[in-house]
Amino acid sequence: MAHIATWSNAMSEALRYCGRDFSQADLEVISDLIAVYPTRQAIADAVCEALGWYRLDGRKKDMSARVALLRMDRDGLITLPKPLHGNGNGRITRYAEPIVELPFAYPESLDDLCPIKFAIADTKAQKQRWRNLIASYHYLCRC
User: Fold this and answer.
1) How many CB atoms lie within 10 A of CB 112?
2) Buried b (16+ CB within 10 A) or exposed e, 85-102
3) How far is Cα 59 from Cα 88, in angstroms, rounded to an integer?
4) What is the pLDDT of residues 50-79, one digit of tens each?
5) CB-CB contact of 134 with 103 (8 Å)
6) Residue of 65 and 88 predicted with greater confidence
């Protein structure tokens, strides 16, 4: 059974997700659809139809709807059914645990790094190490 968080005075304005404003009435429609449809994909399709959420070319904005629904669920506004599958590929965890190994010491000059050798990570262990290093040290992956 789906639920909607109580709409407080602080939330009297429409909420914005994925470039679209959602009113209390929209959340009620979404909650009713969650009670009817069994999967997140089916709910997103139904939300697009019910709220008239379409692209300029006439196709449903189903991926935007799925992202918006997931964020609403995380914000406690709605309760989505559990996902049927994992992350899609079943192998790679998006957020890896930071590794404990320390990177090499920074050299005083770039000449100290030569020669540089590029290698493809082709074993499972090498690929996991690569993902962990990127998750731990890449500036875009730090939380």
Assistant:
1) 9
2) eeeeeeeeeeeeeeeeee
3) 23
4) 999 999 999 999 999 999 999 999 999 999
5) no
6) 65
